[in-house]
Amino acid sequence: MKNKIIILLFSIIPILLFSQNNGVVINGWTNVNTFKCANDNFKNSGSIYSFTGNQLPNVQLQVTDFDCRNKMMTSDFRKILNAEKYPVLNIKFLDFDKAPANKFTALVEVKMMNVTRKYTIEFSKNNHSLVGNKRLKFSDFNIVPPKKMGGMIYVKNDIDLLFSLAIKD
């Protein structure tokens, strides 16, 4: 029952966070806390995306634009993603299909730190936006989650990528 509630919350939260906006948030966990890093420049970009025709979106995000609302956490996050050497996180839509009940399925290519992975992501339409989320792993991108204080505090391998794209109707 507890797992069903958690899954329901992760399905509803992106819709509430991102209605009528662009947004990218990466949520993660440590053994003692959680963290949430958002890309505010993308949120405020004003871009509107189209999913019709042959041109699907290719979203390029500057790693240094992610803010975890904690100076040390933001610095660590940017260091983990090696922002100096790999300044861009790229999300490219390869395929996009309508499913029943205002749902959509997309094949998305995520490129982070010169490693590319493909994921199938389900989206919902909400107030002129497409909202989706996907559970990824740091290890998908050859990233070893960091440890602090001799391993007493460690970042878990799972991260959630939550995003919303403002769309043309």
UniProtKB/TrEMBL annotation:
InterPro entries: TTHA0802/YceI-like_sf. SUPFAM superfamilies: YceI-like (SSF101874). This is YceI family protein. It comes from Kaistella montana.
